[in-house]
């Protein structure tokens, strides 16, 4: 989806990514990298006594995996511009397969050879449930730079 210049995006267009299964190794590695060893993610005995009844993936891990599902082309993406309205709606468990849905909701020409594309992002589980929702913004290069 992020493989074309700014002026080729249209409000309302959507894109769906391939799937990716979340593994125990993902959770353990993310805990190690982030330093977030909260027991809901890393302690199965603790997690059994929560509303989830099992360990869940870190919300930021799920968000990061979603980012990895984006198709980005060097030269078209100038920079990641930000996240707004981020919500973690449903838990993602070990073994869940998630995919990403992006829908263009806004286009702002920056007038400097770039423009900001705003997407409604949904990270969706194999059950069809939305796990994460956010507004993503990317600074995209134009085909012809000013």
TrEMBL record:
Domain annotation MaoC-like: ranges: 14-122
A Pfam family hit: MaoC_dehydratas
Entries under PANTHER family matching the protein: BETA-METHYLMALYL-COA DEHYDRATASE, MONOAMINE OXIDASE-RELATED
Name of the featured protein: Dehydratase
